[in-house]
Amino acid sequence: MINILIADDYVLIREGLKKVIMRDPDMQVIAEATNGAEVLRLLQKHEVDVVVLDITMPVRDGIDVLKDISKYYPNISVLILTMHSEKKYAVRALMAGAAGYMTKESAARELINAIRKVYEGGKYVSPELAEHLVETLRAGGKQVQQHSLLSDKEFQIMCKLATGDSVKSIAASLHITTSTVHTYKNRVYKKMGLSTIPELTKYCLNNNLLD
131: which of 44, 75, 103, 140 lies 20 to 30 Å off by Cα? Predict the structure, then answer.
């Protein structure tokens, strides 16, 4: 039996995932988390084989949690299931230790296959993502290198700024101060060699980093 923990802050999504997963006689959902910090607390209490993890969650985001799972629970496989496009976060998630990455647009059957594959020690990516990864490796160009220099938090804030979010709203959503957001913003500008929000937006659009 494959023991699964689902982590998503939307109850309707968790319920939908449970229904899909529980149709398979070899799988059971033994725990649910509504935020990143809760994931780590539940892993201390339950024997989990696979974590189905969203990226955008309150308290602690999925990438941060993923890094801790990889560090403290190396035998647990993590499958990222998110609304974010593969080109935006997939490479970062896989580098942080994810065994698989898929979007919420994927079919139910694909989810079951992905869970089974990562449980067995394999890696799961869609054919489209596999092609993108090959293209990224081949490119090695200046633009790919630019945003790959950003930390996960810097990358997250860059994308929020590029979509028009204010410093105040970013601070509230990430549970940090506005001065901290400004610090990250300045780091992003420096690392990217840019100086305005329109330039960030143009870069993100050109590199398919916005949903």
Answer: 75
pTM of the model: 0.74
Integer Cα distance of 208 and 148 in angstroms: 14
Render pLDDT for 22-41 as a digit per residue (tens, 0 to 9).
999 999 999 999 998 999 99
Residues of the domain holding 150: 142-206
Count: domains in the chain:
2
Q: Determine the Cα–Cα distance for residues 33 and 66; give it in Å rounded to an integer.
A: 14
* CATH classification of the domain holding 192: 1.10.10.10
Q: pLDDT, tens digit, for every residue of 93-139?
A: 888 899 999 988 877 888 999 999 999 999 998 877 777 676 666 66
Please identify, among 109, 133, 157, the residue that sits at the C-terminal boundary of a domain: 133
**Domain check: are 119 and 148 in the same one?**
no
Q: What are the tokens at 118?
A: 């990562």
